[in-house]
Amino acid sequence: MRLTTSFACAIVSTLLATVALAATPTSPETKAEMIRLIDGLEKSPYDAAARDTRGAVMQWLIEAPDVSVTICTALLGDLDELDQDGGELFSSQLPFSEARFILENPSMAEDEQAVHVAGVEGMLRTYANMKAAKPEVRIRHLEKLVKLQAEKKLDGFVKDAIEKCH
């Protein structure tokens, strides 16, 4: 399945417009399960169950009353280019990795910079595992982010991207 720009925008709109549907906070068991699932998506993005797992994590994230992420599409680069390069899964991996960071670091949930950096780092872990499984994979935007991370310039990229999103 190819992710179109309109589908990506629908995901973004859904997440941004989400009203907490659940009456109680996410249980410790569910938090642990979501961390495990998100970790699995980062480690094995091509796993046969990955599509269903992404759906389950997305449903939880939409309904979670105590975990909220704001999607900054500037972090993803050009969505059409990302889609053409085969990187459509990153429009979901970014918020999943951000949610994982919030679950693991609840006191930092309001630190927009830290949350977005963690999301981008999660995308880069996923990308590294994609390349390990399929060495021919090359996604231009992610290659740029890998270089920025190696040069210790990822924080600056995230800061600039956040400014574009506001």
Tally of distinct domains: 1
What string gives the helices and strands in order? HHHHHHHH
What is the number of beta strands? 0
Mean pLDDT: 88
Q: Given the structure, what is the number of helices?
A: 8
How far apart lie the N and C ends?
Answer: 30 Å
Radius of gyration: 15 Å
Given helix and strand content, the structural type is mainly alpha
Q: Shape from CA axes?
A: globular
How helical, in percent, are the residues?
Answer: 55-70%
Describe the 3D structure.
By secondary structure, the chain is mostly helical. The protein has one domain (5-165). Helix content is 66%, strand content 0%. It contains eight helices and no strands. The chain has helices at 5-17, 28-43, 50-63, 79-84, 90-104, 112-133, 140-150, 154-165. Helix 5 (90-104) packs across helix 6 and helix 6 crosses helix 8. The chain is globular and about 40 Å long.
Task: Give a short summary of the structure.
By secondary structure, the chain is an all-alpha fold.
Please specify the SSE layout and strand pairing:
Blueprint: H1 5-17, H2 28-43, H3 50-63, H4 79-84, H5 90-104, H6 112-133, H7 140-150, H8 154-165
